[in-house]
Amino acid sequence: HFYKRPKPKLPTGIMVFYMVRLEIILLCSFRVQNIASCSGNLSWTEYHPLEHHQAYLQYLQQNYPQFVEVEEIGWSHEARPILLLKICPNRKCGARPAIWFDSGIHGREWIGPAVMSFLARELVEKNAENRRLTQLFDWYLLIVANPDGYQETFTGDR
């Protein structure tokens, strides 16, 4: 490996942001060769409709209850649930600095939910490899912020 992770003391402020950003970039770029496996019937070789993303969140909660919780934070105009994935050690959110990501804000934004579900997979299903990230921070991932618009682009006239 050309990258050797430094062993700093608990970082604060802007250093945390850059360290986390670097870890996420490395996490997402060096493990791309392993994305062929389908976790919870979600793959990263094609774009998936809303119900697949929502089923994947439920899969994560059912299979990793020790640190994953799915919270319904609201309903869309067309009565679709807006689901937030919370990744916190021992399901005790609020004890560490928080990192919030949202995607799927615009209906035709298909890449955002794909990236966020991949990040969720790396943080949860591959937690043994990424434990440092989940021990230092509480993660909040809003995979699809606009479920009505996202669903419409799969079923309606784009």
Q: Which overall shape is indicated by the principal axes computed on the Cα atoms?
A: globular
Arrangement of strands in the largest sheet: 1-2-4-3
Radius of gyration: 16 Å
Measured by DSSP, the beta-strand proportion falls in 15-25%
Structure notes:
The chain is α+β, with helices and mostly antiparallel strands and about 160 residues long. It is about 40% helix and about 15% strand. A hairpin with a 5-residue loop joins strand 1 and strand 2.
Which key features would you list for this structure?
single chain; about 160 residues; alpha+beta; four-stranded mixed sheet; 5 helices
Write the layout of secondary structure elements.
Blueprint: H1 14-30, H2 50-63, E1 68-75, E2 81-87, E3 98-102, H3 111-124, H4 127-136, E4 138-142, H5 147-155
Parallel strand pairs: 3-4
Antiparallel strand pairs: 1-2, 2-4
Task: Summarize it.
The chain is of the alpha+beta class.
